[in-house]
Structure formats: C-alpha cells, structure tokens
Amino acid sequence: MKVAIITPYYKEPDAILRRCIQSVLAQTHQDTKHYLISDGHPKPDVTSGVKNLFSINLPVAHGDFGSTPRSVGAICALNEGADVICFLDADNLYEPNHVTSLVNVYEQAQAKGEVLDAVFSYRYIFVPGHEYLRLEDREDLQHTHVDTNCMSFARSAAFMWPMWGLIPSAWMSINDRVIFDMFKLNQLKSA
User: Fold this and answer.
1) Could you tell me the maximum CA-CA distance found in the chain, to the nearest angstrom?
2) Residue 96 has pLDDT above 50, yes or no
3) What is the pLDDT of residues 3-56, one digit of tens each?
4) What's the rounded Cα separation, in Å, for the pair 177 and 119?
5) DSSP string, 137-169
6) How many CB atoms neighbour CB 41 within 10 A?
7) Could you read off the pLDDT of 100-121 as tens digits, one per residue?
8) Which of 103-135 are b and which e, b meaning 16 or more Cβ less than 10 Å from the residue's Cβ?
C-alpha cells in the first residue's frame, strides 16, 4: 500500500522541520513518500537530498493555516498513485510504527471484504525530553473531533484529499474540524 504523508510548513525553525522529516524517515512502513510543501518560505538546506521527500515550493504564503499547501500536496499524491494519504504538521511527529498501524487497519478491513474510507488515530501530547502527557481529550474520546495529524484517507475517499483548499477563509482556524465534519456528512466509513 502506497502511503503519502503531506506536511505544510511556513516559518518553522530548521530543527523542528528536521524532527518532522526524521519521524517520517523512521517509519517502519517502507512504501511511504513525504510531500513537504513550503507556504512561501522554502528551506532547501533542510529539504534537499532527503530520501523519499518530494519538496514543493509555493511562491507566496497563503496565511490559511496550511490548507492550501495540504491541498496541493494531496493532489500531487493522488496523481502519483498514493493509496492512502496522511497529514502531518511540521511542528509534529509520528511514532515509527504510525503508518504501519494505519495500513494494518486498512488491510484487515480489506481481508474481511470491507472498504474503509479513513482510519483515524489517537494523539499523544508531549514535551520534548519529558514523558508523554496522557491527556484524555473529551472530543477525541467522543469522536467529535479528529486532529489533522491523526487523519488518514484511502483512495476511496480521494475526493476529500484536496478539500482543504476549498475551506472558506473564515473557517481556516478550524480546518481539521471542517474536514472531519465533511467526512461525517458524506457518511464515509472509518475505523
């Protein structure tokens, strides 16, 4: 299963961006491609020469909380044959087995003859150098919200992939909520 990880970035410090990139490189799922989309502020010294990294530089910043870069990256991944797409903000990271765990859920459903349009993961909040904070987010537990970094969509929901770019500017600060609501309104199947 080909998995694309979409990361928009703006002016994040080099160390933060490198940490994000390293977390994708450390994924145990081998068929993973990372799309890193600069929102007007490219960092070629950080992105050049990285294995399985496709760098896209948008000429101007859009000021839309990463929605335009997510949409551009998603369209590229779709056109390049990705089976699943995930989103990872530049100031976040994935555990090494994150993508593998998502792919396993998709494949288990396929083995039962089921189609999953999305797999959503839980999130951990941590302070670098410290223990993970085991916070119980009521929205996560009640399935009323899914953070951007916890979303993955299958090709069966490909129409959702570039939807980030269609969100009205007044709603940009809650773009992950808008995407999750669109997912629910379309009655797509998830795990």
Assistant:
1) 46
2) yes
3) 999 999 999 999 999 999 999 999 999 999 999 999 999 898 898 888 889 999
4) 16
5) -HHHHTTS---GGGEEEEGGGGGGGGGGGGS-G
6) 13
7) 999 999 999 999 999 999 999 8
8) bebbeebeeeeeebbbbbbeeeeeeeeeeeeee
CB-count exposure of residue 83 (10 Å: 0-12, 13-18, 19+): middle
Q: How remote is the C-alpha of 105 from its chain's centroid?
A: 17
Exposure letters 19-37 (e unless 16+ CB within 10 A, then b): bbbebbeebebeebbbbbb
62 three-state secondary structure? coil
The one-letter amino acid at 5: I
> End-to-end CA distance of the chain, in Å?
17
Q: 3-185 in CATH: which number?
A: 3.90.550.10
